[in-house]
Amino acid sequence: MTSRDLRIRRITVRNYRYTHPNLGYDYNGFNEVFQRGGTVQRTGHVLTIETESGITGEYVGGSAVGYVQVAMVAPYLISRSALERERIWNDLKRALRKTDRFGIGPIDNALWDIAGKVYDAPVAELLGGYRTRIPAYASTYHGDDNGGLDSPEAFADFAVVCREMGFPAFKMHGWGAGPISREVATVRALRDAVGPDMDLMLDPACEYNTFVDALRVGRACDEANFLWLEDPFKDGGQSAFAHRKLRELIRTPIMLGEHVRGMELHVDQAIAGGTDFIRPDSDYDGGITGVMKLAHAAEGLGLDCEIHAPGPAHRHCIAAIRNTNYYELGLVGPGIDGPSLHCPIFTDYSDDLDAIDAEGCVPVPTGAGLGVTINWDWLDANTTETVVLA
Ligand SMILES: [Mg+2]
């Protein structure tokens, strides 16, 4: 097959919507939390990039913000070779420099799906295989006041359930509002409940109002031997200065990076002493290409790269990275039934709580490309809009 056959001829996005049961929102309407009998409406996106050869790349993911940018650059992609990912990535990096560049990720991931199908290999193999099973941590919904994860004891009980399922690690997202003493008590309750061997992490997701609250919780994390404290307070995970100060005051490693974008800012944040890890996401940081660049940047700094959030693209990346520890499986919680982020749309892939094996590992898809099968019947029934972008 010649590269000419792989010129891009059409780009389409399908938007879909579905209802998730037993969920609601917490104090400000943003964090999804357990709410018995409640529902939340979720939206999703499927990007399709067709080539002249008939080989089509598909990616399930991305955000509404990102697809505004995909629409902006879609005409540029027409007639380009789908195998020129690096050129496309760099062109789009400049073209979208006045945005957060969320549009690059879905495009790049769909192009990797095409490459895998061209070479009849899973993306992980093209990236360079390192592992075929990935240890996962259970990553919880935020704390609630509705009978779900509504107390230190409830978090501790759920962590024990996860440990007994085989998870080697557990990460709590705390409460969006409320006394910091409850957050501290939960850190202590978790370690008391699971014993010394399970890795524990805390992600307040930028909810704490003050640096002192972050310090109070960080000192509890020290006592409880937590593996990391992530994005603790309302600088929004941005301030290298503040987190370097926090790192001087506590022993627990600090995880930033979910809220800075691209190679240069991630590296700057690490060199400035703001974080102990590099944290990429393919939807946020320019797709699989962007994630692998960040993994190798971390490798060059001697640091580990911990990828944010689940999904098939992230499993392929982790399978090809040495300097990484865990796959983030979530969000999960007791009593929250029904499909997780991407589940209903695939016939052969899940990020639900029971996606792990007895050792707490998730598999890496083995089919060509991203190696997952879209449930087209389900998608047809839930599509709200199909837009040909170019
Ligand atoms: Mg986070």
From TrEMBL:
Molecular function terms in GO for this entry?
glucarate dehydratase activity
Matches recorded under InterPro entries: DgoD-like (IPR034593), Enolase-like_C_sf (IPR036849), Enolase-like_N (IPR029017), Enolase_C-like (IPR029065), Mandelate_racemase_C (IPR013342), Mandelate_racemase_N_dom (IPR013341)
EC number(s) on file: 4.2.1.40
Q: Give every Mandelate racemase/muconate lactonizing enzyme C-terminal domain span.
A: 152-253
Which Pfam families does the record match to this protein? MR_MLE_C, MR_MLE_N
Show the catalytic activity.
D-glucarate = 5-dehydro-4-deoxy-D-glucarate + H2O
Query: Pathway membership of this protein?
Result: Carbohydrate acid metabolism; D-glucarate degradation; 2,5-dioxopentanoate from D-glucarate: step 1/2
In terms of PANTHER family, this protein maps to:
D-GALACTONATE DEHYDRATASE-RELATED, GLUCARATE DEHYDRATASE
Q: What is this protein called?
A: glucarate dehydratase
Q: Which organism is it from?
A: uncultured Propionibacteriaceae bacterium
